[in-house]
Design a protein that fits this description.
The protein has 158 residues and is mainly beta. The chain is built from no helices and nine strands. It has two domains: 104 residues, Immunoglobulin-like (Sandwich); 37 residues, no CATH class.
């Protein structure tokens, strides 16, 4: 899973009467963190002030980085400290009566994109080691680019 931007998570307050004040950690995993083998991708902290019953909070443009996975799990009120998995809740300062509804999972279905490659450095066939390089990126509609990577060819040629 290369860079993935999470555009929105809506967190509903528990049905209790308590108002929440403080930082609530949210952790992201490659698979079900209640099982062994899940990889933690990131933990973010959301500041809540007077977060009352039935309140919501919207998160936008949260960047999650990691390697190859076909799912993403989000765990609310998880400090991300139970590594390796399985995680053990509670592990954060906000105390809840039940943690059973804090884990959400979804499948990831990448959309194929067209890559554009540009020569950065022409390969000198006499150079040792080879010195050719290319840059690959995904063009963005309306201009610009995303996912810029420079690749050294490492190939010798005529």
């Amino acid at each position: 899973m290369p860079e993935c931007k999470l555009h929105r998570v809506i967190a509903n307050n528990q049905p209790g009467d308590a108002t929440i004040n403080g930082n609530v950690p949210i952790s992201f995993y490659t698979s079900n963190p209640k099982r062994a083998g899940a990889t933690k991708l990131n933990t973010i902290n959301i500041a809540l002030n007077n977060f009352a019953k039935n309140s919501t909070v919207n998160l936008t443009n949260q960047v999650i980085n990691g390697v190859g996975s076909d799912s993403l799990y989000v765990v609310l009120n998880d400090a991300g400290t139970s590594v390796p998995t399985p995680i053990v809740l509670p592990n954060a300062p906000i105390v809840e009566c039940s943690y059973t509804d804090n884990i959400f999972g979804a499948g990831i279905h990448p959309i194929p994109v067209k890559l554009t490659a540009l020569e950065v450095n022409k390969n000198d066939p006499c150079a040792n080691p080879p010195n050719g390089a290319a840059r690959a990126y995904v063009p963005i509609a309306g201009g610009g680019e995303n996912t810029t990577t420079t690749i050294s060819t490492g190939l010798r040629g005529p």
